[in-house]
Fold this protein.
Amino acid sequence: METWEWIVLAVAVGAALLLLAALVSIRRRRGRLSERFGPEYERAVSSSGRGDAERRLSAVAKEHDDLDIRPLSRAARDRYRDEWHQAEARFVSDPRDAARAAERVVFRILDERGYPVDVDEEEQAAHVAADYPEVVERFRHGHAMLENDDGARGTENLRRAMLDFRAVFEEVVEDARTAA
């Protein structure tokens, strides 16, 4: 073989290796995002396409890693449990107020732990998904049920919101990382 043929062959092999490395890197990143965000990853991909979803979730993951997420003290956990029980007790007499109180308790817990609360609902849900991928859909659904609490199905929607917020509450208060 002549020298130029060796050069062409080396360039072709090098390009193939670079392409293979890029594909492996993309698959690895996709796997990390899918593992970290769970159902939120699939939701994001289905709503905005794989590329946009992965860019958005990568940005959220980086921003989330820079947050100072703190555990709750035992006293704070006890205080929030008491507030939660008070909200649940009010449900029979005032379901709307009880569901809103439950939402506020979850927001205050997230705020005290260091999650961003002054962002839009989608970004907040993505940050919750970074640590709690199993309950982020319940987080969203609870908000949606509060928005749809009018009409004949109003009390049922508020009941569903309470159940959704309870699932989120239990995760963010009873999380093993908070047992410091």
Q: What stands out?
A: Residues 74-178 form one domain. The chain has eight helices and no strands. The two ends are 68 Å apart (CA to CA). The chain has two domains: 3-65, 74-178.
